[in-house]
Amino acid sequence: MPVDPQIQGMLDLLARLDGPKLASQSPQAAREGFEQMTTGMRVPEMLTPVASTRDITVPGPAGPLHARVYRPEAQADESLPTVLFIHGGGFVLGSVETHDNQARSICRATRSVVVSLDYRLAPETQFPGPVQDSYAALQWVAENVGDLGGDPERIAVAGDSAGGNLAAVTALLARDAGPAVCAQLLIYPVVDFDPDHPYPSRVDNAEGYFLTSEDMEWFSGNYVPAGTDSHDPRLSPLRAPSLAGLPPAVVLTAEFDPLRDEGEAYAAALAEAGVEVHHHRFDGLIHGFFDLGLLSAASAKAVEIGCSDFATLLHQDQASPASALA
User: What's the predicted TM-score (pTM) here?
Assistant: First the structure.
């Protein structure tokens, strides 16, 4: 189907503005531009309401990391799930601020406490630094769950794009070394850095749909040190020797996204390994749709569907999950 008309209008506007390409900018300039684009037009009336937010620091492997805790409306003594949310931005861009409304949406729609993390960004901190930050944050969440959501049996991870990669990798690390993770929400994740794998979506959607192949090369060049094994599971979770035993997953992909095919390959590989998977491909949508609900009704519906599935995993009896690719 064609691109959602409301999103096509945004793409047409971006084309007319003809802003500088990522590859022509320094990481710092690109970060500033991304911050302005995502937060400059945001006003309080546009924010998804939650009961409260609180900025904190959590211990990281190289020092304290900034994070923000979002709480939903709930009874004072009610036990809730706790979700570690890891933002996207190609490992180079993004922050708690740029992804504020995404964290709010997950918090409100799933009735979960969300801890949104500011991990160290590349190229100042390359792989595996952001992985180490994410895993350290998950360990902190588990150690402090009594002061967060309260239920040690319902700790989950979520992330979009690069954050989807870090969420998937963090779930892998937690499977092998703890703490227990009950669910994962992977929003158009990057899961395979193998430069030789022929994913058609990387070619078909290389230009004109917000995230470009040139952008992906720039992100990868900044994040991945020269000589890194592209099949390292901490970089490419799709290449892990086994995905068995991972927590149930919601995987969201978009028709016009270069990352579509690898996200769908990960959903299929999880299901093949016996993991409960709920996968949705949203036709007509592009990379980044999870923050386009105010612009596009189709995007808003996609967020609703993805969060509904995640909420089901977070609030269901975890004793005997089914194995299915839905």
Answer: 0.95
In the prediction, which pLDDT does 325 show? 40
Write the CB contacts of 290 (distance below 8 Å, at least 6 apart in sequence). 102, 105, 160, 187, 188, 252, 299, 302, 303, 306
**Which residues belong to the active site?**
161, 257, 287
Residues in the chain: 326
pLDDT tens digits along 230-267: 999 999 999 999 999 999 999 999 999 999 999 999 99
Nearest Cα residue to 84 out of 133, 130, 121, 137? 137
Question: Dihedrals φ, ψ of 187, to 5°?
Answer: -100, 115
Say how many Å lie between the first and final Cα of the chain, rounded. Answer: 21
Distance from C-alpha of 152 to C-alpha of 79, rounded to nearest angstrom: 10
Q: How far apart are CA 81 and CA 87, in angstroms?
A: 19
Burial environment of residue 8 by CB neighbours within 10 A (0 to 12, 13 to 18, 19 or more): middle
- pLDDT value, residue 43: 78
